[in-house]
Amino acid sequence: PLVLGFETSCDETGVGIVRGHTLLADALATSMAEHERFGGVVPEIASRAHLEAMVPTVHRALADAGIRASDIDAVAVTSGPGLTGALLVGVAAAKAYALALDKPLYGVNHLAAHVAVDELQHGPLAEPSIAMLVSGGHSSLLLVPDLAQDVQPLGRTIDDAAGEAFDKVARVLGLPFPGGPPIDKAARDGDPSAIAFPRGLTGRRDAPYDFSFSGLKTAVARWVEARQRAGEPVPLADVAASFQEAVADVLTAKAVRACRDHGVDHLVLGGGVAANSRLRALAEERCEKAGIVLRVPSPKLCTDNGAMVAALGSRLVAAGVAPSAPDLGADSALPIDVVSR
Ligand code: ATP
Ligand code: MG
Ligand code: FE
């Protein structure tokens, strides 16, 4: 099927077009520059930017794919989780196109879409797979027997998401928002074993698949403050590398453990933090050792985009899942096990 996908859960206005597992277009507009000085995404600014960017972004996607709107077989849209006002712009746009084209509408889960996007690069997902979703708002381990309708949460962060930790540590280090990319870059020149930052929830009695990054963030902030108080320079590269190592270590150790415990030999990563170079390298290394097949989308498809929504929509159409009702709304707290609604 030829599927048009809309993504507006945060600051990215994404419109993607896929045919089956083939990516035809992935048009993106972002309001990130407007949020930068606030150190976080401002919901009202994001909603307004989505409104302004929506129609031009759809036109760009159609042109890139070389198709007409009337060629579309189905429309998919992120209906949650995310910022309510931002989500509503995408849902309204998707409804309008579905209605005008007289095609089925699928309201999908943003998090499942982060996993589905990998099918555009590596073909059908092996099922069951373990999925590790690490982004600005979420960090979860999932058992995925069937991406179209059966996604089971195994564990999640009990405080900050992995991406949130990157963003907060970047702020402590005076690096721009969002913090993932500049920390990744700074860490290249650093020693990952320079500072022994804590690995949250890795004790024997801790929940095996839950994460905690808030202690790590505090530990980094304390370490940097102590340096500054002593009037000593802060070794930016070493702090970045050591922090990044702590995150990558915990994430990959728990993902491999989830695979082993569930007898699953396929792991897929998704979400913005999956763009991190050290996480990708360490996951590769540990999966190879454990005999696990690792799949990670290219960095550009890890962060929010419209193609991921179209990819999941395509999957739902192929599986014969019922489309959404015409009164589809936004659910800012859509649970992770609700793939579509
Ligand atoms: P969610 O998907 O939970 O709703 P989101 O949509 O804001 O949240 P994404 O766009 O998937 O999240 O990811 C953004 C996050 O990814 C930010 O926190 C950002 O710092 C982080 N990130 C992006 N690139 C990298 C990188 N190279 N290394 C580490 N983190 C990164
Ligand atoms: Mg974003
Ligand atoms: Fe996301």
**pLDDT below 50 for ≥5 consecutive residues: which ranges?**
none
Instruction: Write down how many β-strands occur, each being a DSSP E stretch of 2 or more residues.
Output: 10
Present as ligands are:
adenosine-5'-triphosphate, magnesium ion, fe (iii) ion
User: Sheet bearing the most strands, described?
Assistant: 5 strands, mixed
Shape: globular
Reading the helices and strands in chain order gives EEEHHEHEHHEEEHHHHEHEHH
DSSP helix fraction: 40-55%
SSE layout and pairings?
Layout: E1 2-7, E2 12-19, E3 22-30, H1 32-35, H2 43-65, E4 74-80, H3 84-101, E5 105-109, H4 110-116, H5 119-122, E6 129-134, E7 139-146, E8 150-156, H6 162-172, H7 180-187, H8 214-229, H9 236-261, E9 266-270, H10 277-290, E10 293-295, H11 299-302, H12 307-319
Parallel strand pairs: 1-4, 4-5, 6-9, 9-10
Antiparallel strand pairs: 1-2, 2-3, 6-7, 7-8
Fe (iii) ion binds next to helix 4.
